[in-house]
Amino acid sequence: MIATRFMELRKRRGLMIALVxxxxxxxxxFLAVRLVAHAVAPKSYGPAGxxxxxxxxxxxxMYVFGFIVAATLGCAAGSVxxxxxxxxxxxxxxxxxxxxxxxxxxxxxxxxxxxxxxGFTIVCTVCVAAAPTKLNYQGVTLPAGLSxxxxxxxxxxxxxxxxxxxxxxxxxxxxxxxxxxGGVPSGTPGEPSPAVLKSLAIQNAARIYxxxxxxxxxxxxxxxxxxxxxxxxxxxxxxxxxxxxxxxxGQRTVPVVLMIVLELILTPIFSxxxxxxxxxxxxxxxxxxxxxxxxxxxxxxxxxxxxxxGISHLVPESTAIAxxxxxxxxxxxxxxxAWRMMTRDT
Length: 346
Prior knowledge:
There is one protein chain. With 346 residues, this protein is mostly helical. It folds into 2 domains: 2-133 and 217-343, no CATH class; 139-213, no CATH class. It is built from 14 helices and 2 strands, in the order H-H-H-H-H-H-E-E-H-H-H-H-H-H-H-H. It has helices at 2-10, 13-40, 51-83, 87-92, 97-102, 104-129, 148-157, 159-165, 194-213, 221-249, 253-272, 279-283, 286-292, 319-343, and strands spanning 135-137, 140-142. A two-stranded antiparallel ribbon has the order 1-2. Strand 1 and strand 2 (140-142) form a beta hairpin. Residues 179-186 have low confidence and may be disordered.
């Protein structure tokens, strides 16, 4: 029965093409263009891979669009028998309606999970193999991988570069070569002494170190593993919810629209805007729960980039509650879809 459901979904060529294009095509084309551009004009275009490219693709593209296409497949799987007039024929065979519904879950996941895995593998491979060789932080080339003490020591040896080029206050009469110095020539009366510059540079380096420490040349193995599991879970949720909603409504178009509205409009609003009388309802949104389970090295979903700052704009929610919400959505929508399948008139 599972194999039959799998074949029915795979034969829907338009849907399969859309799944491949979104999960594999979009990141592949983006990375291919960057590879070619960097090869042709390396001074104008940066490396195709690296930590920043990885985090932006995973959190900004694969996370959102992976959910939408998985939900689209789920909505199709939940309504295909009704829209094609095959539901009555399935019931006449005497097979359990519950078994017919549950067979669609492994069949659909057998399509979604490998596609997401292939696209994510391509992103990881390029981002590691084509990562930059020098760390660029706030537009300044810095040595990579320094500990806090090592970073402070480097800052003490390069005070002018730290004070002039990195974020922070610029001392008066400091002869910066760039626009921060305002063209003050070296030897100007009142110019800070080397000891004062070193002390100020170390203070500034201590302030910006958290942001520096959260910037890497390429994603770590642990970040790639956690990120892969995270976006796979998001795709699984999208498929299960779409399957239940498609079965409940008996069609595909309206459920797909509702899933897109949920992911692109409602979830960002409920995840970041604290509504006093709806706070508990907001915590029940599965997108907020997934955002709280997001790996720490990625830009914060729906709440801005919090790397290195520790600042989150998400509606507060504990990890335990987030896990419970995700399980409730998976079990609840499966139960609703199965119930509608079992009670639908033939």
